Structures are given as C-alpha cells and as structure tokens.
Amino acid sequence: MATQVKSFYDKFHKKEEHKVVILMAKNRYDFLRKLLTDQEGKVLVIGCGSRDEMSILNHKCKGVGLDISRTAVEKSRNAYPQYDYVVGDAMNMPFKKGDFNCVVCSEVIEHLPNEEKFIESVNDILKPGGRFVLTTPNWLNWYGMARFLGEAITRKPVTSANQPIDRWTNYWKLKNNLGSYFEIKNKWGLWFFPPFGRGRYMIPEQMIFPIVKALNPINKLLRKVFFPFGHMLALDLKKRK
C-alpha cells in the first residue's frame, strides 16, 4: 500500500492546479504563517509537499520537511533550501521521542491509513507541552454534501484528486480522537465557498476565479463564528503532560 501511495504522490506533485485550488492553498498558507509567527525551536512539517508548505515557518524555526514523495521533497528543497528534508512515511516517522517543539500536519491526516496510530506517533515525537497544528477536511459543509451525493449516485468513493485514501471527519469526532493526547487551545474553520467542480470538470478558472477572489475577504471573516462548518478544520493543540 505504501508503495502505491508513494507512486501516486510522485505523479500528483507534477500536475498543474486550477487557480481556485491555488487560492485555497494560499489562504491556508497565510493562515498557518500568521499562526506560527512566534513559534521557535525545531518544527516538523508533515507532508511538506511541492509548493509552499515550508513558507509557513519563520526565521526562528529550525524546520524539517517530511513527505512520502521524493518529487515533492526535491521541489520543496529547491524552493526553501534553508530547511532539512526527509523522504519518509508519516505512519513510520524516523524521529526520536521528544524531538520536536512543534509538529504541523496540514491536509495530510485524512490520507493516512490509521489516524489513531498517527496521532500517537505525533505525541511521541513532541516535547512535553509541545504544539501540534492540524488542518483537515470536514464533512459538514458544501464540499461534504457534494461528496456525499457523488458517492451516493456513483456508489463508489469520490476522493479529492482521486487520492487513494481521503478520510474526512468533523470537529466532534476529531476532538474525541485527539483528546487522550492533546488539549485544544484554539479552533477555526477555513474556506466556506461551495465546490466549483472536480478535476477536469471544474468550472473554467477564467470564469470563477475573479468572483472567488473578490469575495475572499468575506470568507476569511467566517473562520471563528462558523468554524464547525468550514471545508477545512484548523486546530491549535498542546500536548498533555
């Protein structure tokens, strides 16, 4: 399974993205960068990707990027050479107990085969009182409704970009799974627009991107008030002692 997943993401990180998808990613990077403004010490970015995941770190961080895709790691290293990188599986991370001050896992946990085991592993590699920043897709929104209908009609999984594993959640389930190891310090919802299609069936970017960009400030205002209903959930967590 791990070999299949690695092969998928090596190809995935060579593709061009729709402008709305890029805007979604930019919103997420901007949000995480602001959240980590004062973070110091050794920080692990799980799923460092091939774009700008490492841009969320500030100059006080000793950053380490981990990704299962060598293609992603090479692209990230070229863009952000000041950090260290590891090609590896998030389910079998090659780090020591208590190695990190902070772990960031953004849009990755839903693609892993065992969420509970992964959360336990993150707890192990964090120092006492360490920080865990997590974002993941949420069922309770327009995207979740569209996916539910798509799966009901086709009677097969409808995953984002046809990814092998794409297990979405909701705030209450996620809170329950994290509760044994982490305390929730803060929470937000990200991205409240409806979906604009999927893959090659997305509305042409020339038509929809100017509208989404113009309305984006309203989207950002909804983050705290309607957090359980954002397409992405964002949690700032602290390791329990």
* Broad CATH class: Alpha Beta
Average predicted confidence as pLDDT: 93
Q: Walk across the major sheet and give the strand order.
A: 3-2-1-4-5-7-6
Estimated structural class: alpha/beta
**What proportion of the residues form beta strands (DSSP E)?**
15-25%
Query: Mind describing the biggest β-sheet?
Result: 7 strands, mixed
Percent range of helical residues = 25-40%
- Individual helix count: 7
Number of strands: 7
The CATH topology? Rossmann fold
Order of helices and strands, N to C?
HHEEHEEHEHHEHE
Contiguous uncertain segments of 5+ residues? none
Radius of gyration over all CA atoms, rounded: 17 Å
Describe, in plain words, how this protein is organized in 3D:
The chain has 7 helices and 7 strands; from the N terminus they run ααββαββαβααβαβ. The protein has helices spanning 2-12, 19-35, 70-79, 115-125, 142-154, 171-178, 205-221; strands at residues 41-46, 61-67, 84-87, 100-106, 126-137, 182-190, 232-239. The longest helix is centred in the first third of the chain and has 17 residues, at 19-35. Strands 3-2-1-4-5-7-6 form a 7-stranded mixed sheet. The chain is of the alpha/beta class. It has one domain (2-239): Vaccinia Virus protein VP39 (Rossmann fold, 3-Layer(aba) Sandwich), CATH 3.40.50. Strand 4, helix 4 and strand 5 form a beta-alpha-beta unit. 31% of the residues are buried.
Describe, in short, the structure shown.
This protein is α/β, with parallel strands linked by helices and 241 residues long.
Topology of this structure?
Blueprint: H1 2-12, H2 19-35, E1 41-46, E2 61-67, H3 70-79, E3 84-87, E4 100-106, H4 115-125, E5 126-137, H5 142-154, H6 171-178, E6 182-190, H7 205-221, E7 232-239
Parallel strand pairs: 1-2, 1-4, 2-3, 4-5
Antiparallel strand pairs: 5-7, 6-7
